[in-house]
Queue: 3 jobs
Job 1
Amino acid sequence: MTEPLHIVGGGMAGSEAAWQAAQAGIPVVLHEMRPKVETFAHRTGDLAEMVCSNSFRSDDDEQNAVGLLHWEMRAANGLIMSTADRHRLPAGGALAVDRDPFAADVTAQLKAHPLVSVSYEEVTELPETGRWIFATGPLTSPALAEAISAVTGTGALAFFDAIAPIVYAESIDMSVAWRQSRYDKGETEEERTAYINCPMTKPQYEAFIDAMLAADKAEFHEGETAGYFDGCLPIEVMTERGRETLRHGPMKPVGLTNPHDPENKPYAVVQLRRDNKLGTLYNIVGFQTKMKYGAQTEVFRMIPGLQEARFARLGGIHRNTFLNSPTLLDGQMRLKARPNIRFAGQVTGVEGYVESAAMGLLAGRMAAAEILGRELPPVPQTTAMGALVTHISGGAEAKTFQPMNVNFGLFPPLEGVRGGRRGRKDRYKGYTDRAKEDWTGWLEGQAAETA
């Protein structure tokens, strides 16, 4: 009988790893501590629950590294992407999903798979025998984090991840706000109007900045330090970096025209993105926060159009744990000190739903191949998958290692392509064309070997 694969953590990475291994014919035991052991951020016991946002970001597979990663996961018959496509919501050029039905669907598919069993209990040790993938994500339990530290000898690093608030759509004043995707992106009218926009004048913006700077913030526990990941900074931390920072970040007013006042360009714009299929909930884009709840309601109601806003969920902050992977993991994502264990997902130092699921996809395939007596060839670094796994397994500088989103800066350079901003469109198309060819070849090589 084939040796089972144990996967700890039922988030994006663990769910995808379980699916890939089971599809390869490997029996899987998926260990998930929720709902018996709760976390600060999760609300349900469903697998692949989306906590921070409902967006998988850009779906452009020709000009965007995240969109390319979507393409590669679809080509590999990924569970997360196929389920996301079924529960897609209008979001301009992005892939956003109806988060609760999405998680319920992932859970149902895994539980229905004949080779997958789900065990609801907390795993607190790194086993010395058996084949394991640990995909416990940013909210790794304290007991397991201690066990990881004991085995690695270096300890896990920690930073803080912040959650954006969600607003009831009916409480948004549409006589002030309007619907439009930036630059009218999208092939349908629904896509081109996927966002709600709230405009600000310069005096309103300045008052808003002052209020955020003065608001009560969540305090850290003794011994904790705030080492934020730049891709998910609390909005007030961005504000502290300079009063104009938000106008060049989540509140940039470009690509938008206010139909209520088309002659006057807003000084800043707050965008809200649909958070469920019914269109009853919207999250405030880029507004992760560590302000205390009372301060949040006061400050966010200063936004024109949100003066009477009701919040389905306020923002929050939680600890995020990740490994110094370049020193700890090999190219097959195995823990060097204990090779029967692989790590996957955000705990490896990738950032984002898509990147986490992608590392789960690779870990699941690698573990399955190993159990079947073969080892997968290295993933081409020219692909989005390969660029990420190379980065975390030795491509990054260990001394300054920080969580990383997929981006074209991780890809080997192209020869004979113009550099700079003017050559960017052709260069990005060159990256994605090369990646698709190499990823297809890598997948076909595995199919030929198992035929």
Note: The mean pLDDT is 90.
Job 2
Amino acid sequence: MTQDHTTGPDAAPETPAPWRPSRTVAVILAGGTGTRLGLGIPKQLLKIAGKPIIEHTLAVFESAPEIDEIIVLMATGHVGEVQQIVDKAGFRKVSKVIEGGETRNETTRVALDAVGEEDCNILFHDAVRPLVSHRIVRECVNALWTYSAVDVAIPSADTIIKVDGEDCITDIPVRSSLRRGQTPQAFRSGTIREAYRLAAGDPNFAATDDCGVVLRYLPGTPIKVIDGSDENIKVTHPVDVHLADKLFQLAAARVPRLVDHRGYREELTGRTMVVFGGSYGIGHDLAELARRHGAQVFAFSRSSTGTHVERPEDVEAALTTAFEATGRIDHVVVTAGVLERGNLAEMDEETMDRVLQVNFVGPVTVARLALPYLEQTKGQLLLYTSSSYTRGRARYALYSATKAALVNLTQALADEWADVGVRVNCVNPERTATPMRTRAFGEEPEHTLLSAEAVAQASLDVLISELTGQVIDVRRPQGEPPQAVPAQTVPSDGGATATPATAG
């Protein structure tokens, strides 16, 4: 005889107990081995924008106020490497770094055991999605107050086709109803535990994501979908590495400015900045701006102090002067550069040597000699490139080549110096009104050019940021009114006192 569960007409309907999670845990799934990238290390340890991919990912959840705890599930044999990253970065929310399972589903089970039995929110996120936004994390957590399972997805821009075993189309679903899944996927702990408990009894159980497990084994459970983002890519194939790196560059171009002068003064008071090429253009304006905000600035150039950036003895003397005066060096900036136009085959040896020495040997020399000082303060080296680094252009081949070299130098040094806490970045301004540019191209409509002051402000924002390994594009906003460009004279020798500017 079956039990009668019906109630009388006066019985009150059952109301679910309100959800009261003890905490919100982010589980970072880092079990990939990098096979498709052809790497000898797990792809999550590959460095992009100066840091391992997993460090970028962890930083997002570490700084998200909605997240209370982070657990990392790492590929077998690499737990120690991730623990070192966590310790060095000072990620306080990371409570465990443990080995995952052989499959995604086994890894989720390990994670559930690590989380414990308390009711909590759990967000599962791919370690190789380093560009997840705080907005996505926040909306996932907020949705769990109403739903017990949440997915992240974006509309499909491509038509999706279904094929048979012979690779012939069998169906073309309506694109408007399709989404491309991303992570994180978020759950109330009881829901995902129950789904996996039921799945354990299915000998044919297999799923590629956790929402799929809920959908199959708890079919009556609504799964809320929130909007992901095109930037939240998964680094899986070689091309993804390049895409992610460029997306980090674009994000770096939006370095936030502090809200008022007091913020800059708090950041810069007591700091020492050394600017090579600080007599004209961007270098001059950056030095003046930093001084106004309380920094102690030492500007060196060929014309004002007789300092040649390509000469180690000159660079060492300049750094020694700044250090002996203040006892520290926090920022070293190299804006020195020369731009000589002409066909390479027709350029004389002296001119070629000057371009190579000032534009490339100079920054290399400064970098080598500045490292011991910057290591003491965990400071930053800032270099400058130009839009011509992306494609060599006729009549200034050496200039373009040296600017491309500085981009590679920036990325390489950011990697090399990460272990000692020294950051390296490179500013890429569009066409800028500097004496060097005027000498090379003559007078140009001022509304088509960035002002040196605008580039200096962007540079200052980079210097007080935590960025490293970035190429930061500085552009004039669309529709911006013409900027006042103060007239400046250029040294007659066209030497290293001029600042680099994009030459096209």
Note: The chain has two domains: 24-158+168-236, 253-474.
Job 3
Amino acid sequence: MTVEPEEIRLEPCEPGRLSADELKTLFLFEKLTDDQRTWIAGHGCTMRVPGGGLVLREGDPAEQFFVLLSGTVSLTRRVGRDEVQTVRTEQRGVYMGATNAYLRDDGLPRSYQASMRALSDAEFFVLSAADFGWLMREWFPMAIHLLEGLALGMRSSQAMVGERQRLQALGALSAGLMHELNNPAAAAARATGALRERVAAMRMKLGKLAQGKVAPDRLTALLNLQEEVIERAAKAPVRTAMQLADLEDELGDWMDERGVTNGWDVAPVFAQGGIDVDCLSEIESRLDSPELLDQAIHWIGYALETEQLMSDVEDATGRVSSLVNAAKQYSHLDRAAHQWIDVHAGLDSTLVMLAHKIGEGVRVVKEYDRTLPQIPAHPAELNQVWTNLIDNAVQAMSGAGTLTIRTYREDERVVISVGDTGPGVPEENRKRVFEPFFTTKAVGEGTGLGLDISYRIVVNGHGGDISLRSEPGDTRFLVRLPLSEPASA
């Protein structure tokens, strides 16, 4: 649905212009020379807006410079679908509008950074952006050089620091991912090496069984026993470390009594497979051959260990696969930039990517409302928000505490809450946490751009809102995202 924008009605008012002497009563022009005020008087005009009328709109091209002569005005900024009032004033002489018109043209469009509305009948002295920019550059060249250097320097610095922060975050995530991948990869390599040895031993044992001129019916019985034992091991209950140790002792004693060679080496394999003494006794009775028992125990032991090693390989490679899928989900390299998403998928993949940084001292609690519908979003950008919020929470707790990720619905928005049990944010800092370059971390530990970037992604990029609630032991960042696409203007 297309919404027609509100019309701006600036009307000329008597006498249409201000004299040089009248301009001198405005603090902005009082220090200028008579000639300068005369020039401004000749290039400006007076305009009025009735109470309730819109004077300028956030995002429109910045084409005029306004000085308030009378009335009350308010400045507002869009936060999601809401208009948040930032300034309300009736002070004569305050200015707004194209305040950066003096900056040299760098090809970037200049737009109003806020909306201004007249709360009562208001009158303004108005200069065009071109005239205001010209007088500033011509009359105050040194000041303009300083202001341009400050503005462009801050812009460049913010861009460089932001890029550096993104690279550092990428490096940290890569290091964490490599650490997480190393464990299952190393486990798979170890299991593969051991598996090669066990398969070689099985081939040798099979040769010895054949050389022993085992009757075909006995060899068939042995192979059937092997399959039955493996099947029983797959269904064996999980035992504690103490129970496994006791079972190893029982199996070792049983094997020693029957002269099984290296029974101490085979018993742990049978115990790990959940095979007890009753099962060994059944094997002994079905073979009915003391001479064949020793070789049969080792043969079945090799088969059991082979199965265990293959399970280890399967678990390790499965872990690698899940980590790779989490990395793909996090980066969304194979998906469209904007799509309808389930926010829980991004939260889960971010937790996987940050698992190494979260550590064992932090308990992660997920309170998800799985009935939430999908929302329109840029998932890779939102994952950057989750990364910043979770990383800040972990650092605030110094590696020990509870990280709570909660999702729920609030009217026509989805709310994602990232909470920690750290010391909290002091009251004097709560209003500044989203300011660029503001940080409470030690020098070198933060750039002060993480929350600023998160704010711009959520508010400007998704039409949502992000806020902070904090007290000692309970700090929560609340991200509110709309359930539907914003209406086009």
Note: Confidence is low (pLDDT under 50) at residues 442-448.
